[in-house]
Amino acid sequence: MSEQSTVAGRLSLEGRCALVTGGAGGIGQAVVRVLAEAGAKVCSVDLPESASPEGASLHLCADLSQESAAQALIQDCADRLAPPSLLVHCAGITRDGVLWKLSAESWSQVLRVNLDAAFYLLKHLTPHFRQQDRSAAVLLSSINGERGKFGQSNYAASKAGLIGLAKTAARELGRFGCRVNVIAPGMVRTQMTKNLPPEIQQRAAEETVLGGIAEPQDIADAALFLCSDLSSQITGQVLRVDGGQLIA
Ligand code: NAD
User: Fold this and answer.
1) Which of 79, 189, 100, 178 minimizes the C-alpha distance to 137?
2) Which of 16, 46, 89, 141 could be disulfide-bonded to 162 (CB atoms 3.0-4.6 Å)?
3) Which residue's CA is the nearest one to ligand 1's atom 35?
4) Ligand 1 within 6 A of 47 CB?
5) Predicted structure pTM score
6) What kind and span of H or E run contains 238?
């Protein structure tokens, strides 16, 4: 039986190299672990002095808001591990504040990490993606990029921007057999959300139809699906993983 004729074969990432940004973060760590379990060699990347997550074949440190750093990191991964054919962009930050009090610096910091970095990564990964079969990129957006969120104009704009970027990249890279998709989580239990006031966490749980907050593993499983051949006809899409927090 050929690999492609079994579900396990279509789910396998054996022989693939995946770049996971924000690999030391809550969702990133789960993504690294799950993609490695599926057989990929995983290159994790996070800020300087970050720790290597479990399952990573290689961990590199870079500030992805700088184009030169993103470009160098991709070359480093290709030289030291293998040319990447998969990307899961989890690096992201928040700098919340109502927009009439938000500094221009907080606005651009968030845009630089959440959105500019995704552009740099896709741009400099394209030559590698073009040379390999079945390349795929997954960008971590948020339901707040679709619905807006009080106090998060910068974050919501960056996450909405990722959707436009992914849809355009899907159109431009499709001719090379490369797929580009977005995951839009609702609230997920990680470092990013654990310091939010309990009533906000409670409200998010109540907004879901499944009645709870997602775990990083839930997002990682969706990323595996979108990287694998189980989703080989899916591109330019936004997959909400939010327990039904935003049904629209
Ligand atoms: P996290 O804070 O645990 O992880 C984010 C990681 O990104 C951190 O390890 C951080 O060091 C890294 N990072 C930040 N700036 C960077 C830079 N300039 N270069 C390289 N790495 C950098 O957050 P998380 O909860 O794991 O979120 C992962 C992604 O999922 C983010 O894009 C976030 O916006 C998105 N998301 C999270 C939630 C949630 O509720 N946690 C909900 C929706 C979307």
Assistant:
1) 178
2) 141
3) 140
4) yes
5) 0.97
6) strand 238-241
